[in-house]
Write the C-alpha cells for this entry.
Amino acid sequence: MSDDLAWVVPVVLTVVGSSTPLLLAAMGELVTEKSGVLNLGVEGMMLIGAVTAFAATLASGSHAIGIVAGAAGGAAAALVFAVLTLTLLSNQVATGLALTIFGIGLSALVGRDLVGVALAPLPKLAIPGLSDIPVLGALLFGHDILVYLSFVMVALVAFFLYRTRLGLVLRAVGDQHDAAHAIGYPVIAIRYLATLFGGAMSGLAGAYMSLAYTPMWAENMTAGRGWIALALVVFATWRPARVLVGAYLFGGITILQLNVQGMGIAIPSQMMSMLPYLATIVVLVAISRDRAKIRLNAPACIGKPFHPAG
Amino acid sequence: MSGEDRLGEDGVAVEPPPLLELAHIVKAFPGSLANDDVSLHILPGEIHALLGENGAGKSTLVKIIYGVVKADAGTLIWRGQGIDIASPKIARRLGIGMVFQHFSLFDALTVAENIALGIAYRGDMAALERRIDEVAADYGLALRPDAVVHGLSVGERQRVEIARCLLQDPKLLIMDEPTSVLTPQEAEALFETLRRLAREGCAILYISHKLDEIMALCERATIMRLGRVVSECDPRGETARALAEMMLGDALATPERHEATPPGQARLIVERLSLAAEERFGVDLRDVSFTVRAGEILGIGGIAGNGQGELFAGLSGETRVTPASAIRIDGVAVGRLGPGARRALHAAFIPEQRHGHAAVSDMTLAENGFLSGGREHGLAHWGLIDGAATDAYAERVIKAFDVRANGPRAEARSLSGGNLQKFIVGRELEREPAILIAEQPTWGVDAGAAATIHQALLDLAAGGAAVVVISQDLDEIFAICDRIAVLAHGRLSPARAIDAVTVEEIGLLMGGAEVVA
Amino acid sequence: MIRLEPRPAHSPIMTWASPLLAVGLTLITGMVIFAALGHDPLISLEAFFIAPLSDVFGLTELVVKATPLVLIGVGLSIGFRANVWNIGAEGQFTMGAIAGGGLALLFYEVDSVFLLPAMALAGILGGMAWAAIPAWLKTRFNANEILTSLMLTYVAQLTLSWLVHGPWRSPEGYNFPETRLFHDAALMPILVEGSRLHLGALVALAVVAAGWLVMGRSVIGFQLRVVGAAPRAAVYAGFNAKALVWCAMLIGGGLAGLAGLFEVAGPIGQLLPNISPGYGFTAIIVAFLGRLNPVGVLFAGLLLALTYLGGEVAQIRIGMPAAVTGIFQGILLFYLLACDVLILYRVRLGRARARA
C-alpha cells in the first residue's frame, strides 16, 4: 500500500470512535421520540451508563458485564423519567432537564473514586481472515463489538419500525395516541418500552465512551455529546439511515478539529473545540427551516402527555 | 332477519331475542352525570337510532358498549349472557364494530396499515390488501389500500373506517354521527351500505341528531336527554317535530327573526382572496369573493376541512393576505393588518375552538375578557392592566349572557362548553362590533345556550352590523342567515338568498360541483 | 391501581404545598443517601442545612450565593411562562462576565464612579447579545432554542477559557490562567463589613419586585403568559409572538449577563476559566421550585443557595463528596415535578366507584 494512504486508516478509526457514541444514543432517542416521548435527559443517561460500565468492568474484570451494566444503568435512569412523565404526567422538557442535572451529579458521585484509574480498553474483535486484509481489513473489520452493534442497530431499528407489527403500532402511538388508545393499544406501555430502550442505548453510548473511546472515567466526560445526539435525531428527520449519516458527519467534525490543532495551524485550541457545537447549531437551523418537512416527519404527538379519558 | 316478525309455534309473531341489552347503566364524570339509569335493547339485524342533543350522553353510552369506558353501574347482556366489555379488543371479538365520529386514523400511515392496526392483524400485508380490495368491491366502497391516509378526503376516510369494521364480520355496527361530514349524496351511498348490512343480519346502532336521516333509515329509536332515556319509538311513524320535541323537551323556540329590512351599505367586501394553507394538511383558498351588507347575516356552509379555518384566519387577520385590498372593512383595506388593528375598526371574531384559541383555559374569565377587549375599553393604563376594570367588564358579559360561572375570577376550564361559548360570544358582542365573523358559533353547545347565541347574532345584525357565520350545520344557517354561500375545496360559491336555494343544491355545492347560476 | 382524576381547576392549595412536599421528600431521601454513603443522617443533615446558617458570615454567604440564582431565576421564570426554554443561561452568564470584565480590564486603574455602572450595562448587553442568537434562530428559522442556547453555552465557556489563557492573561500572574485582579473602582461595593455580601443582592431584590409587577400586572406580562399557555390564542389576540419570544430571551439573557458581571466584579474579583458552579442550570430548578413566580423564585433561590453552602460545609466537615449538591438539586426537581401532578389531578386508589 502506498505510504500516502497510510494516514487514512488511523483517521477513519478515530472518526468511528468519535461517531459511535453519537450513533448509539441517537438511535435510542429516535425510537423514544417516534413513540411520542421527548427525553432530553440523554446527557445524564450517557454519563450514568459510562460510570456504571466503568465501575462494573473494574469490579468484575469483564468488559461484557460492564457493557450490560452500562445499558442497565441508562435504562434505570430512563425508568425514573418514564414514571414521572408517563404515569405522573409531568412536563417532559423539565423532567428531561432534571434527569440531566441528576445524572451529572449522580455519575460524579459514583465515580469519585474512579477518576484516573486505568482500565484495559474494549478489545477489537478480530474476524479470522477478514481482519487481515491490508487497509480494508482494519477499516471494516477491526472494530470492537459496540461499533458493530451500532451499525446493526441502525438496520434493526429500521426493520423494526417499518417492517414489524409492533413497530407499526409504535409509529401509530407517536402519531395519534388517542386513536391508538381507542383501538385498544397500550399507549403507556409502549412508551415505557420505547423510553427504556432509549435509555439502554444512551447507556451503551456512555459505556462506549468510558470503555473504548478513552478507557477511563472523568466527571462530565460526555461534554455535550448527549445534546448533539438529540440534535441529530431532528437533523435526520427521524429516519434511521439519516441518523447514521449525521453521526458520522459530527464524528468527522470532532476529529477534524483535533487534527487541525495537530497540524500546527495557528488557531487557538479552544476555538477549534467549538466546532462541533457550532456545527450542531448550523445543522439544526438548516433542517428546521423547512417547516413542512419537519411537520411531515416529526411524530405528531411528540412531547404531549397522554391521559386516557375516563 | 332484519326486524321481520318471526312466527312462534302458535303462529303469533314473536320478537327474536335481543342481540345486545343494556340494563340500568350509570356513568359519572367530574361535574356531570353522563348516563343516568339507561336501559335499551337492540335486536339482531335491526337499524336502531340513538337520538339526542349534544351532551345527552349518547357518546358515553356507546363508548361503554365498545369497551373504551367502564360504566360505574349496570349490566351489559350480549346474546342473553351478561358480559363485561373491558376493552375494545373484547368488543371486537364479540363482533361489535365502531366507526367513530372523529376518525381514529393515523395520518402518516397507509390505508392498509391503518386497517391492520384497527383489527390487530398479524398476517401477511399483501393478503390483507387483497381482502381489502374484495370487501371494497363487494360493498361498493372505493378504496386504495396503499394510499397514505393524510391525502384522503373525509368521505374516503370514513370508508376506510367502515372497511375496517367489515373485515371483522360484525354482528353490531355502531356509527357515531356518521353523516356530519358527508355530502347528501355520500350520505345516501352510506345508507345503502347500511341497509345491505342489516339485510345480512348485522344490527346497526346509528347515533345522530339528524331527524330526517333517522326517519329515513331507522326502525327503532331510543331518545336520550340529559343522560336519561326519555322515549322509545318507531321513527318511521313520527313527525320530525314530534321527535325534536322528545329530544329537546320544551316546545321548540325558533329564533325571532326581525322584519326583513333592506340591507344597508356594504361593510365587509372580500375580493378574490387567495391564501396558501399553512397547516400540515390544510386547504388553499382560491379566489374567494363575497360582500356582506349592514344588517345581513351571510352563512358560509360546507363540510369541515374545505378551508373554513383558513378563511377565518384570513378574515380575522391571524394570517395576513395580499393584496391588502382583498379584504375591506368599511372601505379600509385591511389585508396586511393584524387582529388588533382590525378590532380597532370595530371588527370582532369568534373562532371555532374554545380552548386554546378563543380563550385560554388556565386563565380567568377576566383575563380572557382582556384578550380581545383590552384595547378599546380602557382596561389598561401605562402598560399596566386595570384589575378592577377588567373584572367589571367580565361581570357585564357574565350577566348579559347568563353565564353560569363563579364570577370573573373563575378559570375558563371550569365552565361547561355552552357557558364558555356564551362568554366568548358575549365578550365579542359587548364591544358592539360593526363586523362579526363567527366560526361554528354553537358547536358542542346545549340547545338553550345555542338559542341565546342565535338570538344575539340576529339582534346584532338588526342593529346594523354585518355578520358572517361559518358553519357546518345547515340547520343553523337556515335558521338565522339571510344568504348562503358554500365553501368547497377552498373555493366559495356565489351567495344566494336563503329562500331561493334547496338542500339538494347545497349538497351538490358542498361536494364541489360547479354552480349553475 | 393508581388513577389520576382531573380536577376542574388548578388546586390553589397544592400549588404552594407541592414545593413544600417536594422539599420534605428531598430531605428524607437525602438522609437515606447520607446513610448509604456511611455518614450519620442527622449529623449530615445538620451540616448541610443548619450549620451554614449558624453565624452572620454564613447568612451573608447565603445571600451571596443566592444573588445570581435569583437574578437568573427571575429571567428564566419569565421565559418559561412564555414557553421559551432558555437552557443556555449559563452561557449568557459567562458572556455577561466577559463583556463587563473586559471593560474593567480596558479601564484598568481608571478611577471613575461611572465604571461599575458601565460594566453592569456591558454585562446586561453581553448576556442579551448571546441570548439574541437563539432568539433569532428560533424566530427566523424555527430552530429549537433548547439545543441552540445549550450549544452556545459550550462556546461561551470555551471563549472564556481562551481569553484567560491567552490575550487577557494577567502579566503579573505567574502564567496562571487568570486575568488581573480588578481594581477598586471596578469592584462591587460591599454591604456588610467583613463579608462578601455586595450590592448585587439589593439589585436582585429590585429585580424580583420588578418581575412580579411585570408578570402579574403589566400588559406585556399578560402577553407573555398567553403566548406560553395558548399560542393560538396569542395570535388571535393580535400579539406579536415573535417579538414576545425575543422579549423573553433578551430578559433572560440580560439578567443572566448581569448576574455574571456581579459574580466576577463581586466575590471573584477577576476572570477565571471557571466562574460558575452551574448557576445557569441550577437557576432552572430555582425557577420551577419558585412556581415560575418572581417572589417564589426569591425563596427558592435562597433554598438552593443553601444546598451549595451545605455541600461545601459537608465536604469540609464530614468528608461528603462535592457531587452530592448536584444530586440534591436533581432530586429536588424530580420530586417537585412529581408533586406538581397533584395540582391538576387527584390521586385515586382502586377502581372507579359508582356514584349514588
